């Protein structure tokens, strides 16, 4: 099969995403004649225009080699049936099929990446971001002919819409618009459920646990949970601003107790990274067995919602969809319990 390299012609940056079909549509991921997303015959080539964080690129959808480094993209690309030539497999969640695929060159961890694998992979397209965003210039230098795209959530933009932007853009790039729309539909449906189930006044606090310590996650700016306050319109139990957007801020259990949160949203940073190690203490144990937190309403009423165990290594639209679903389940259950209590008092 003939492949042409992706063109990388940037035009003035624009916010949004435009998909322009130049010829006939690209074959789907399960097309027996192609076998994977992102490839089609030269006669059926499709050109699309995609805007990322740095500009607008006119891209040919015939790919011979794709590299992905943004952990928010791994499961999305997996859903689209995209084959990778290189990726930081050590960053991937255990559930991601790419992780144990020895045919994918391993770029290692972001702190000391093996960038020689970029040269070996000879990529046409690189999906970069998050932990690897710092290596953008190196990637561009090592693969000057590749299209380099980044969709990290932009400061000042609604976080949920930024996740949707990435999914839809990747769907356009790989000719998987229908699959992308399905992911977005599931994501929005769970947001709507949680929004409808939340009473608009119950106080909420975000916490992050790591290394046996409990940290505070500030609304809006805090790691993973912060944006949830804005997406769902949650009432913060504590208005304290955060300083460490990545790993949470120091907080005492006494301060948590004094804030009296009615709901706790918890990210166990070590859940997948350190689970099984002797010094690992699960977030549930740290919080529920803390003597100082026994009278906290969220603990008393079992209104603690944990983010998925693989969240720290995914942070993708699927992880947020699962979390919003879990939170909606908990809110709906609490609402039903409150209604039954009111009926019994009458």
Short description:
By secondary structure, the protein is an alpha/beta fold. The chain is 33% helix and 16% strand.
Helix-strand blueprint:
Layout: E1 9-11, E2 47-51, E3 56-60, E4 66-68, H1 74-80, E5 86-87, E6 105-106, H2 116-121, E7 125-128, H3 136-142, E8 147-150, H4 159-173, H5 177-197, E9 203-210, E10 213-217, H6 226-232, E11 235-236, E12 249-250, H7 253-259, E13 263-268, H8 283-288, H9 297-300, E14 304-306, H10 311-314, H11 317-345
Parallel strand pairs: 4-7, 5-6, 7-8, 9-11, 9-13, 13-14
Antiparallel strand pairs: 1-3, 2-3, 9-10, 10-12
Helix pairs in contact: 4-5, 5-11
Describe the structure.
With 346 residues, this protein is of the alpha/beta class. It has two domains: 9-175, Nitrogenase molybdenum iron protein domain (Rossmann fold), CATH 3.40.50; 200-315, 3-Layer(aba) Sandwich (Rossmann fold). The chain has eleven helices and 14 strands. It has helices spanning 74-80, 116-121, 136-142, 159-173, 177-197, 226-232, 253-259, 283-288, 297-300, 311-314, 317-345, and strands at 9-11, 47-51, 56-60, 66-68, 86-87, 105-106, 125-128, 147-150, 203-210, 213-217, 235-236, 249-250, 263-268, 304-306. The strands form four sheets. Strands 9, 10, 11, 12, 13 and 14 form a six-stranded mixed sheet that branches. A three-stranded antiparallel sheet has the order 1-3-2, with helices on one face. A three-stranded parallel sheet has the order 4-7-8, with helices on one face. α4 (159-173) runs antiparallel to α5 (177-197) and α5 (177-197) runs parallel beside α11. The protein is globular and about 65 Å long. The relative contact order is 0.11.
